[in-house]
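README, section 4: Worked example with a bound small molecule

Sections 1 through 3 covered apo chains. Here we extend the same pipeline to holo records, where the ligand is supplied as SMILES alongside the sequence. The molecule in this example is nicotinamide-adenine-dinucleotide. Nothing else about the input changes; the structure line simply encodes the ligand pose together with the chain.
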Amino acid sequence: MKTIRFGLIGLGLMGREIASAVARWCHLENLDFRPEITALCDSAPPPGRVDWFRQHFPGIRQVTTDYRELAANPEVDAVYCAVPHFLHAELYTAIIGGGKHLLGEKPFGIDQPANAAILAALRARPDLVVRCSSEFPFFPAVQRLFALAESGAFGRIIEIHTGFLHSSDLDPGKPINWKRLVHANGAYGAMGDLGMHTCHFPFRVGWTPRNVRAVLSKIVPQRPDGKGGLVPCETWDNATLLCEAEDRAGTRFPWTMKTHRIAPGQKNTWYLEVYGTKVSARFSTKNPKRLDYLSYSGGEQTWQEIDTGYGGAAFRGITGDIFEFGFSDSILQMTAAFFHEIAHGRPLSAAAGCVTPEETALSHRLFTAALRSHERGTTEVV
Ligand SMILES: NC(=O)c1ccc[n+]([C@@H]2O[C@H](COP(=O)([O-])OP(=O)(O)OC[C@H]3O[C@@H](n4cnc5c(N)ncnc54)[C@H](O)[C@@H]3O)[C@@H](O)[C@H]2O)c1
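The generated complex, written as structure tokens:
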């Protein structure tokens, strides 16, 4: 069993989520590697947060408010970094410079120049595994969709739809936070927050956006500042994109992409729909074990509803094959995929590989073109 010493930077929402996956490592079977959390960093951790970590992870030997100290710690092999977007370039390049493998968060740089700076730092350290977090493709139904795409089962792609829909911002009384301020979250708004999630599958199977027409919406113009006043809510709430995408054979098809923070009725709905001349398939985390599947070779067109279970996950777990799979399972699978690549020098499979830095660069090209498209009212080349 290879132990990989793991440091966490940013102990907020996602820092705890990844830590919980590490604590649940016993859930996965037949692995010859395991992470051990040895170091923590947060410049201003929420009250009680460090105690929570110490209580659950006795291997912690460093707690610091300065990321440079963690990046220089020889007792850390790999880092998960989940901090506000404006800090990605500074912290990710320091972590890479310190010789640590990195699982960073999306959008992997607040904008295109920040993303380019991260990729430039990486060119000097090709020995490191540097990946971007995106967990939904680890749902077993989506793993099956990868297999369909890789085998060419869809036939000619007619169109695809991807999206990520929230409604947490529907309440205009929700106080402002860093995710609604351009200097901290970035000009991409909802695309920066949710967009990488909607690109992971298409990019990985070789479906590349060539141009985009974007419509961006600001729905709630101001929010409470938490001190009795109101402040501008600066970022785009919703982004609706229509792309012309191209597969590896050069065939083009439409791709609609929605990243909405204000989508009534949706809590954390990630979906993927692929319509092909031979096979069509649809999945949404709203019904997390349901895969809709239609195979057409003449005659009636009949949708089948397939129940997928934990058995279709990339990394085998102790959960029985027929039981349901959920959000925290997808985080565990993604974390296993990251450490598998460190331990074995390659991903378990293309479908079970985390987002690469090159894929994040393509997402930045797309979102930057989408900003131009909305501003000019034109279709922009990606
Ligand atoms: N993969 C997902 O499903 C998912 C979900 C939510 C957020 N995210 C991403 O995770 C990242 C963090 O989001 P979050 O929701 O966890 O945010 P959060 O606000 O809950 O936590 C961020 C933490 O970073 C800390 N921090 C700020 N500056 C720091 C610094 N200089 N050094 C060290 N720590 C610092 C803050 O004190 C805070 O505790 C973002 O990139 C976001 O897009 C991913």
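What to look for in the output: The chain has two domains: 2-132, 137-314+356-381. Residues 357-376 form the longest helix (20 residues).

Section 5 describes how to batch many such records.
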